[in-house]
Amino acid sequence: MPLDTAQHPGQANQATRDQGRRALIHIGLPKTGTTTIQGFLAENAHLLAARGIHTQHPDTYPAWFRNAHAGPAIVALTRAGRLIPNLVLRKKLGVTTLQDQARFANEFETKFGAFVRDRPSGLFVISGEPMYNLLDKPDLIRTLDGFFAEYFPQRSYLVYLRDPVDWVASQYSQSISSGQDINLRTLIDQVARRDQFAQIAAWDDLLPECGMQVRLLEPDTLHGGGLLSDLCHVMGCNLDGLHVSRDRKLGLARHEIALLRYANRLGKNDLGWRLLRQTRRFRFSGRRGSFKLPRHHRDAVRAMFASSIERIRARYFPNRTSLFGDKSTPAHTLKDATP
């Protein structure tokens, strides 16, 4: 049963609304640079504030900043009377009941509301992958937007789309690096269960009064040719004068994946697992060619999302002949790493 909405801090204080406030809400899809965006916003929070752009940063939620990006999604779930579906996140937050969850949601609303009230005008940029990962039903998406509407009369949503051939390869690299032993075909079957391209169009349909800004992670479409320069363009500012940290997250090479998959089968408590992971660090330190999908897997991924990608192209990019540029055939396959 949904909790009494009168208890929600944001709803209780409608005076928070101000015509001078606007919100840009970034829905972070997996493997589309969300961590890079959030790190950039946090690092430049004070510099951006001087330009009239306000964003979440460690000073706002010092005790639990790492969980703050999940705040809006948890508020929406709580208002709808539903527990967080992700058991790992639930355990991380110490949530076992809806009442536990409501305490987190109310604390977030209180801090978020205070942050907004202290800034009577400007653009507020909110970024979070949990908004996509946790909210997959129309009523939850509308509830989320209802929460933001209490603070921002003007709202727009932003999403970056990446070629599925690239993000599946990146996801596979991350899965192996995190300790999983999974073959590529299994991972492809898993990602096929949720079509992010179809879901983004659904978000736009549900929130027509807000508008969805759809951007492509393709060099020929990004303003300035890069993600952060494009983000600044969308926010209405210039990248000049802002800090840009070097991205140290490099994808695994083919041979690293083969070695780590073998190590992962041993288990983290095995001495061999630790030795092999250390071996990988110096053995492949100078060979950083990131893994690319073999042709047959690449074709399978493209076919899997072909219809929804075409709908996105026709709807948002009618002047492009194809949504994503064709990737050249990789020089190798993963025969030794994907049995």
UniProtKB/TrEMBL annotation:
* InterPro entries in the record: P-loop_NTPase
Q: What is this protein called?
A: Sulfotransferase family protein
